[in-house]
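Record type: monomer structure entry
Structure origin: computed from sequence
Chain ID: A
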Amino acid sequence: MTDEWKAPAKASADDGDEKSWKLLEKTLLAGVQEQRRSRRWGIFFKLLTFVYLFVALILFTPLMDMEKSATRGPNYTALIDVTGMIADKEPASADNIVGSLRAAFEDKKVKGVILRINSPGGSPVQSGYVYDEIKRLRGLHPDTKLYAVISDLGASGAYYIASAADQIYADKASLVGSIGVTAAGYGFVGTMDKLGVERRTYTSGEHKAFLDPFQPQKPDETAFWQTVLDTTHKQFINSVKQGRGDRLKDKEHPELFSGLVWSGEQALPLGLIDGLGNASSVARDVIGEKELVDFTVQESPFDRFSKKLGASVAEQLAMWMGFHGPSLR
């Protein structure tokens, strides 16, 4: 009698527990679904904000440029920056510099052009392209003078470009010159021998692999490569002599074309530059139009935004993966 009465009570307790677990499960699932729903809406609003900011950037950048144009004076000095390595696909590529030069020379309000240089040089091909274009534009627009202004450094290919200008100015501490050509590499032949590694190269020309750092140099190939460098050096020297003309005080100076650099103060008596000054002083005192308008080719707003976004994503990813750089403590 007692056992028969206890069985239904136990079954009733089990049913209650099962209902409680189901209710708890439903509550938890509802909470998870609500979190997912909130997360989706959060992502949606973040994307909406991103799109809004991106569109605003695209729309307002031209308006800002128009506002700048409206505040310009009747005449001004064009400023073009040549910064960093002169090479293809770089900010100081020939295409970018030439595009800026053409825009500046074709602007009727430009009374003078300043090429502000801070570069160690780079490709002789890119430098030569800019040099030739400066000469051409000066011939087409004889009334618009071009002045090269060297800030920290105007060496090698950068000086190559500067020598095409009407005049060159620099700070007394600027580094100027380096009229020479270099080609450097490494030789790993001894290392390969120590490691017991055999280099196997297959070519269809006798000298096709003459710059291979894993093979020993051959005297005839080394001599040939030197003729290539000497020829390029002569082109460089001839361009500087043509650009500077009689302003070079001693064209036969034994070290003038040796690849050395001089300070602006030293370069002045050598005739490598025409005076001491900066972009502002040249615009004000030489050209006579102190207002500077930047004609340097700029990245598009989309490119700038993409780079910043990419850098931010990379930084967050590095932090997430635990790659932390050094810090001050």
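Annotation 1: The domain at 74-303 is CATH 3.90.226.10 (2-enoyl-CoA Hydratase; Chain A, domain 1).
Annotation 2: The chain has two domains: 21-67, 74-303.
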